[in-house]
DNA sequence: CTGAAAGCGCTTACAG
DNA sequence: CTGAAAGCGCTTACAG
């Protein structure tokens, strides 16, 4: 057999078709559960395909059909375990359905997200999953102009035509603040990092709960633009008790900050929750292991990933999801640190 | 202008070529830093391309050239921060060089890795990055048969033709064990999870160091196949002090286990390091925040990612790296828990 | 240094 | 239900 000069040596659909004694097009249809092909032929083609170890070429398919099976999912940062969980849940739904999630990390930078979007969209993705609603105008237009089905994760909106799965950031911020109020704390601080849109929404929830209770004091809000970490949490706690010794509770915006805060309290010999109560957010791994165990808000990131992926699956199939906006519930986890 | 029926409405190279008044092929060359094209033409083509907002179609390019710019990188698990750091470092080198790292998570499962490999290799990747050497025979053959340049991360070997960047797992296991011996501990336990190949190599290093010192006791090795977590670390510590009260130090195979062990010691009222010393591995975020701060081994995952990516870049360019196997150093981090 | 032709491997209308 | 033709958007030899 003579190989043409540009041949890649790859097993192609033609090889399969030839082996099965049908035309290339029939082979193509047989392989995609084509309802229009005779059952016997389907079997013969599939047999030949496995026999030869045929693997379809995604590039050729994408080019011919002008769509791929890739699904970019853009998250802010993998060092936040929250997003690792989200990705895992998405993967569990999309991968078995024949789609390849492609992870993109924006580092909380809208410019970087825009660049990623531009690159990924060039791959004719089957669908798109992004985090939240805060992005550049150009990024917005890229998404809209691409015609690629998109589901927004983590936050929700009622805007028409937007598909999203998330939870109320501000309500969850209020809920923990209210819990602290209910436990009798009055000088409740809020310590946050990164200051991304969702963090600021939670701060808003904190504020409104305290204002409603007549306990709001702007000086107890400690907002740092640094990235979230245990070390930062420790520093924020130290700063709070030094500059505002009257503080009796600290609501940390993410569990890693709270872990750091809790350990810093140990180091300073401050009793928790006796001298200062400590609360976290997200219920990340290890929060139940802290001493004392950390009170926090459990966020439904696995459900968000799963339901978001399911919604996208429907959109990619041309179906209309029953709901275009799904708001899930958070769960207050009361442990010993408050 | 009449659109053909199957047109996708996309701006193509033909559009750019037409706008610049050259042929499609010249446009292609001009866009790829083609040295053979006149400087003036290059400028005209690039101008036209940006003018029209041309984005090359990766699928078409992959099909025509039989290679893409995708670089799959296969890691065991994202919930281990170690691999998040590794990915970040790889991304920082590959992305600016025009390659797209595609993250694949194997969940420490060789069968899953083989499946991922099969799928990713179909995409004609430009290069490949994998973790360690432990995989199915089929996976090995897939890699070899693909002809795709591959760099192995985390472990090293002298096998000819294999490109790798890592550190000596067993030596790092020995080093921490020796540190504990030097500090005067004699009943030193080893607590590990997951039991992946690298964990077992570190266990081997622990064993040989203790044997050399005449202190080895197999009953102090606690190997759990569960996945690593703070909660598991806590349980392992409890079990150790209950069944082997004479234990005076515990070397945890990963920092998250050590964090959990440290907190469990607090809970049980065991002084650290007075009653029992605790050491970790990897030097993950937060280890310096523990109370007492955790002694551990800092592993060079950022350097591994960076140098591994650079080595792959050379291979993808058809160059021969100066070294085919790079073994990096770990650094013992002595803090207060030992 | 530039271009006309052929081809990468698949799918989409269009016939039968 | 099956197939011959054309095409997706690009790059690779081959000429000039």
TrEMBL record, chains A, B:
- Tell me the superkingdom of the source: Bacteria
Recorded hits in InterPro entries, A to Z, give:
HTH_LacI, LacI/GalR-like_sensor, Lambda_DNA-bd_dom_sf, Peripla_BP_I
Q: What is this protein called?
A: LacI family DNA-binding transcriptional regulator
Q: Which residues form the HTH lacI-type domain?
A: 11-65
Keywords recorded for this protein, A-Z: DNA-binding, Transcription, Transcription regulation
Transmembrane portions of the chain: none
Matching CDD domains = HTH_LacI, PBP1_GntR
Q: Which organism is it from?
A: Uliginosibacterium silvisoli
Q: Which Gene3D superfamilies match?
A: 3.40.50.2300, lambda repressor-like DNA-binding domains
Q: Which GO MF terms does the UniProt record name? A: DNA binding
Keyword Transcription regulation set for record: yes
């Amino acid at each position: 057999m003579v190989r043409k000069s540009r041949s890649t040596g790859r097993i192609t659909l033609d090889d399969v078709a030839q082996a099965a004694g049908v035309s290339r097009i029939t082979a193509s249809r047989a392989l995609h559960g084509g309802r229009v092909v005779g059952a016997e032929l389907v079997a013969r083609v599939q047999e030949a395909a496995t026999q030869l170890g045929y693997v379809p070429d995604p590039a050729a398919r994408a080019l011919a059909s002008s769509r791929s099976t890739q699904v970019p999912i853009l998250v802010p940062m993998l060092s936040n375990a929250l997003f690792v969980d989200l990705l895992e849940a998405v993967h569990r739904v999309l991968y078995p359905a024949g789609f390849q999630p492609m992870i993109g990390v924006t580092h909380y930078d809208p410019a970087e997200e825009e660049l990623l979007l531009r690159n990924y969209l060039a791959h004719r993705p089957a669908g798109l999953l992004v985090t939240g609603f805060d992005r550049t105008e150009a990024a917005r237009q890229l998404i809209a102009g691409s015609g690629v089905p998109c589901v927004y994760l983590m936050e929700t909106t009622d805007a028409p035509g937007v598909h999203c799965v998330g939870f109320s950031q501000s309500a969850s911020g209020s809920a923990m603040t209210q819990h602290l109020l209910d436990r009798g704390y009055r000088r409740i601080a809020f310590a946050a990092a990164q200051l991304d849109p969702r963090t600021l929404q939670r701060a808003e929830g904190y504020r409104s709960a305290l204002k409603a209770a007549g306990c709001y004091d702007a000086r107890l809000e400690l907002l740092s633009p640094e990235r979230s970490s245990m070390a930062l949490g420790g520093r924020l706690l130290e700063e709070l008790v030094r500059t505002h010794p009257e503080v009796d509770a600290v609501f940390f915006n993410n569990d890693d900050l709270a872990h750091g805060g809790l350990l810093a309290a140990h180091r300073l010999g401050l009793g928790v929750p006796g001298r200062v109560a400590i609360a976290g957010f997200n219920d990340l791994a290890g929060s139940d292991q802290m001493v004392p165990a950390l009170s926090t808000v459990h966020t439904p990131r696995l459900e968000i990933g799963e339901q978001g992926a399911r919604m996208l699956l429907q959109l990619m199939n041309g179906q209309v999801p029953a709901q275009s906006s799904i708001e899930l519930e958070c769960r207050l986890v009361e442990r010993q640190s408050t």
